[in-house]
User: What shape does this take?
Amino acid sequence: MNDRIVALLQCPVCQSSMTVTEDGKVCRCRGIKTHCFDFARSGHLHLAGPHAGEGDGKEAILARRAFLDAGYYASLSDTINEILDFLPSKTVLDAGCGEGYYTNRMADCRDVLGIDLSRAGVEYAARRAKQLQTRAGFAVASLFSMPVQTASVDAVVNLFAPCAEEEFSRVTKVGGYLVLVGAGERHLMGLKRALYEHPYTNEGRADLPSKMKLVEQQRLQTEITVEGQEMIEALFSMTPYYWRTSDADRAKLKCLERLSTELDFDIFVFRKDF
Ligand SMILES: [Zn+2]
Assistant: This one.
């Protein structure tokens, strides 16, 4: 984790700013009573409070990692990077970074702090940042109570994760941005057609910010062909349908070796003007 990312952090216990000890092994706060947090071997920090709950487990993270690393969502990642290129985005917070696929791709040319409640996700993301030598740093924490200083980041990115508007707004500088992505109405229709007799289109995100100002909206539509049982299953496991599909419908996917499906992403850019 580089110094510029450490400078964004605040102590989850007393909210003081943080610094790294000389040996580089511990992040400690500058509060009256010092709180210390060890860097994990992969280089990330565990800054979640005791009641933060748990994020995605290892199995879900491994499936996402396999699917995303195969490049099926590269068009979304590229579009997010292009949007960030146009915004003031020297320091970015990826809120709900998961296994860090998008985060590390954003962090080639800017400092990005990735936060997620999933330990397995953050650990993999941090390991990948080391391997690829990106400018990303990672911490385990809840999106609703982030160990990040007030008005410290140029932009927050939120891909499919819950929108904690108040907290995102708190950490963003005045004049900074929130880039939010949700599933568009035809997202994964091919997958749904394979599963269900009467597939419905998606409804838009119900949790869009109400206080920040919408300054741009775009729709990214494309089509992919997913190859192989394992990849199809990995995609399925990333969706909300995974938990609400009957065994009979599930079985239909097992016979597929290839699946073509639309991708449809709604991308929103909000600005914090207050
Ligand atoms: Zn402290």
